[in-house]
Amino acid sequence: MIKDQTYPHEPGAGLVFAHRIRAKITRHRWFMLFVVLPSLLATVYYSFIASDIYVSEARFVIKSPSRQQSQTSSFANLIQTTGLSEGQQQTHEVIDYLRSRDALADLSRRIDVKARFMASEIDPLSRFPSPLRENSFENLHKYFNKMVDVHLDHDTSNAVMTVKAFKPYDAYILNEYLLQLSERLVNRLNGRANRQAIVEAEKRVAIAEDRVRAARINFGKYRNSSELLDPQQQAKGVLEISSGLEAQRVALLAQIETTSRITPSNPSLPAMRQQVAAITAQIAAQNLQVVGSNSGIASKLSGYEANAVEQEFATQMLTTASASLERARADAQRQQFYLERIVQPDKPDQATLPARLKQILTVLGVSLCLYLVGWMLVVGILEHAPED
């Protein structure tokens, strides 16, 4: 009689093996849930589902034509070097623009940005709109900022722009159009600054012209009221007359002295003495025209000089303002700032993102850390729990 034999591969052994696997899974269910399952999903997603991402990079800097710098003190140079240069300020303005909604709106007028990120061949987690997100411009802007990164490289002071897309040409054309929009922005900023400089210069010229006109009118009124055309020439003429009269007076006095000594009873002496007195009175009258009275040239000289100085200063102010206006117009004829492309946007021939192995290991590491933190927290709670 043959006895029954039980082999390892019989159904009874299989049930035991399945029971043991189920028991291990139940015992390590939290590890399977928080570590194994996320890592497995990440492996499946990044290995078979995640779409390839192509990256196009460009570098640029904002420059200005070389200008002759004025002589400044070392302290002023120190202050200037501690801040941002004009080119760096312009670069920051361009970077802020590329991150703004205006840049996305301007770019959308040239190319259908939304269609580039809504293609059906893109995996659902990477395409726009993201799951549980609405198809709105606000969400598109947030998505766009994730795909376009612009920052300043502090080592080289160059702006670095990287554009991610799901096709090589899309990454290239988006990068190129963004650079063109940046160049247009720089030109617009130049035009705005030039127009503002010209308007300010024209205002200063108008103010200077009004001041010159008022100074000339006031000067003319003062000349008419004071009967003073040119004090130097008028004083010079009066002094020449006085000098001539003084010479006549001296000659007559000498003649009177000689005649009195030779012929004291000469009948012409009284007439000569009267002539000397008359000349002396004329000399005094001529001197009063220059000094010694409120109507003299000297008393009117201060007002004349004040009006002359005002007219001269107003004329110099007008000359300076006119020169500033000409410089502003000359600056408007040339580009003050321009965008210099250091690295042209490239057309990638190989996908560099996503870094599949790196992403899988990252998910594994994060899941493991969270599991360990939770495990230690639970162990600590159980150790300090009161025993019943």
Automatic annotation (TrEMBL):
The chain crosses the membrane at residues 30-49, 360-382. Residues 23-107 form the Polysaccharide chain length determinant N-terminal domain. Its main location: membrane. It is found in: Cell membrane. It holds the Pfam family Wzz. Signal peptide: none annotated. The keyword Transmembrane applies. It is a multi-pass membrane protein. Keywords: Cell membrane, Membrane, Transmembrane, Transmembrane helix. This is Wzz/FepE/Etk N-terminal domain-containing protein.
